[in-house]
């Protein structure tokens, strides 16, 4: 690509310029070893969130005869999305779509065509950016695994995840981060409150509603079989989230450092607020409660992590642990949708909350990093609402159609007999425990 | 010869074992079981949702002993496994027709 070559030459000349005249500003396409090292590290951290973090977090929450199927769903989605990301996912999300660019990118970079090792994305190699973004594309459909465990067909999981990646994840990523229409409007989503958590949360709710609940839902389902591995998975999510949020600065700088700080504070605060409410309400603070609060705090700070300060993080965390907890009860017991592992209540609601709250918590009076130039809190709030509502509607509509399609092609649900026996043996021929 | 079978709370196993050893009973078979009686299971709360757990973890102890030891064995078990709360368990005693020590071929009281 001639453009790339020219820019490489300019970058090289600029590099020489910097050496010869240290006062000269570096050109944009100069590689930063520090930034590159941090994003390589962040990429590994975010992959670690899915494998094994999220897989274990979810695995402990299901019954003993379906734990392997949940681990299998997360693992298989990781592999499937990786391949699809190379084929066209990355290109459609992050390349220029010409006249269609407000909606979707182009196919110029399908199969990573014409990019190579010299291409740059800001101060990091484009290959590193490709990998970093791929780990986000992996975890998002993997989050939806929590909507359908113990009863879904494996073929339906694969079909849904593959189509969903292209119809929901990729376009929304392009809208928000790839120069699409929401980016043009000035929507703020630092690390994926809309792109990851709203898309996955809303789609999970739709999937669970169409699929129907586990046998015996709501009062005769089996409790989580192993809170211990849920805690281990949650702890890995916490660590991995440093890569998710602080990596989204795409640089090893003060913004990344502050993102890490607020991420940690929000997680800790939400854990405490969730467990405290439980303690007051039910008399016992539970391990599953405190770690679920942590995930809620992390999901909620995600969109805000590059815009708010420590006090904002305290507020976000405290609110997340209370509101998300209330939503789990509301979804399962009031509207009675068996979003089994609370993907919508924890991730979807958290993503929405954080996306809204950053509008005013970015104010310097809350220690925030400031509003966008020429925008008021009201302007921000309006754009954020437009972002949330449009993405939620698109996610729900597209998921509905994909799920109906999967239902016709493969069927969504296993037989009652297989569900009672457990998916580990009936779908994968394996056993986790001798019972 | 009698078979004494007791179902007790798991955390009382050590106390029961010590009490039985104290009256000269040197062998027993222990199994982890699940069940319920008047206690009728309990509920657990996860993320605000109540789950009914019908079968609770219990420990089943089986001892084969001569008739002369039965009364003291039952007393020892009852004394050691007692908390006074619902769910303490039960002791059952039944006649045993035959016993054989596999290693030596001894039978009856000799085999116990």
General description of the model:
The complex is a heterodimer of chains A (435) and B (112). Chain A has 435 residues and is mainly alpha-helical. Chain A has helices at residues 2-20, 33-59, 67-94, 126-143, 154-177, 181-185, 193-211, 227-246, 254-282, 287-301, 310-334, 343-361, 377-409, 416-421, 423-428, and strands at 120-121, 124-125. In chain A, helix 2 (33-59) runs antiparallel to helix 3 and helix 7 (193-211) packs antiparallel against helix 12. The longest helix of chain A has 33 residues, at 377-409. The model of chain A is unreliable at 1-6 and 12-27 (pLDDT under 50). With 112 residues, chain B is an alpha+beta fold. Chain B is built from two helices and six strands, in the order βαββββαβ. Chain B has helices at 13-22, 70-81; strands at 2-8, 29-35, 42-46, 49-53, 56-65, 89-95. In chain B, a hairpin with a 2-residue loop joins strand 3 (42-46) and strand 4 (49-53). In chain B, helix 1 (13-22) runs antiparallel to helix 2 (70-81). The longest helix of chain B has 12 residues, at 70-81. Chain B is elongated, with a radius of gyration of 17 Å. The A-B interface holds A 218-224, 227, 278, 281-282, 284, 286, 288-289, 292, 325, 328-329, 332-333, 342 and B 44-53.
């Amino acid at each position: 690509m001639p453009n790339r070559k020219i820019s490489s030459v300019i970058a090289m000349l600029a590099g020489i310029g910097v050496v010869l005249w240290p006062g000269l500003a570096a050109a944009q396409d100069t590689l930063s070893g520090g930034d590159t090292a941090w994003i390589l590290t962040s990429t590994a951290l975010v992959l670690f969130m899915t494998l094994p973090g999220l897989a274990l977090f979810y695995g402990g929450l299901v019954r003993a005869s379906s734990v392997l199927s949940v681990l299998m769903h997360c693992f298989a989605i990781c592999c499937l999305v990786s391949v699809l990301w190379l084929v066209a996912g990355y290109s459609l999300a992050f390349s220029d779509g010409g006249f269609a660019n407000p909606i979707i990118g182009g196919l110029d970079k399908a199969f990573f065509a014409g990019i190579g090792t010299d291409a740059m994305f800001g101060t990091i190699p484009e290959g590193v950016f490709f990998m970093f973004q791929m780990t986000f594309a992996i975890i998002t459909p993997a989050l939806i695994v929590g909507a359908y465990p113990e009863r879904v067909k494996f073929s339906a999981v694969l079909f849904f995840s593959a189509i969903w990646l292209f119809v929901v994840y990729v376009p929304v990523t392009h809208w928000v981060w790839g120069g699409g229409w929401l980016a043009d409007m000035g929507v703020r989503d630092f690390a994926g409150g809309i792109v990851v958590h709203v898309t996955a949360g809303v789609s999970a709710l739709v999937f669970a509603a169409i699929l129907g609940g586990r046998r015996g839902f709501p009062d005769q389902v089996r409790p989580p079989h192993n809170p211990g591995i849920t805690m281990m998975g949650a702890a890995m999510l916490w660590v991995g989230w440093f890569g998710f949020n602080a990596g989204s600065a795409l640089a090893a700088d003060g913004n990344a450092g502050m993102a890490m700080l607020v991420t940690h504070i929000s997680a800790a605060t939400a854990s405490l607020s969730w467990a405290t409410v439980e303690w007051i309400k039910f008399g016992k603070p539970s391990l599953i409660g405190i770690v679920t609060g942590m995930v809620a705090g992390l999901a909620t700070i995600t969109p805000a992590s590059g815009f708010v300060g420590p006090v904002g993080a305290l507020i976000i965390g405290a609110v997340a642990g209370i509101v998300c907890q209330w939503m789990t009860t509301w979804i399962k017991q009031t509207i009675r949708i068996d979003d089994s592992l609370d993907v919508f209540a924890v991730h979807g609601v958290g993503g929405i909350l954080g996306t809204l709250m950053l509008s005013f918590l970015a104010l310097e009076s809350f220690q925030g990093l400031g509003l966008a130039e020429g925008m008021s809190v009201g302007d921000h709030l309006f754009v954020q609402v437009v972002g949330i509502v449009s993405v939620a509607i698109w996610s729900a509509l597209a998921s509905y159609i994909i799920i109906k399609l999967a239902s016709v092609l493969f069927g969504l649900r296993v037989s009652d007999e297989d569900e009672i026996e457990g998916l580990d043996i009936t779908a994968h021929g394996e056993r986790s425990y001798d019972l | 010869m009698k078979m004494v079978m007791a179902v007790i709370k798991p955390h009382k196993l050590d106390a029961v074992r010590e009490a039985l050893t104290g009256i000269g009973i040197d062998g027993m078979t222990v199994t982890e079981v699940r069940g319920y009686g008047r206690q009728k299971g309990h509920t657990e709360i996860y993320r605000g949702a109540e789950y009914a757990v019908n079968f609770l973890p219990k420990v089943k102890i089986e001892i084969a002993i001569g008739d002369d030891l039965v009364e003291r064995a039952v007393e020892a078990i009852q004394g050691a496994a007692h908390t006074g709360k619902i769910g303490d368990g039960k002791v059952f005693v039944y006649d045993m027709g035959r016993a054989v020590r596999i290693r030596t071929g001894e039978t009856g009281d000799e085999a116990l």
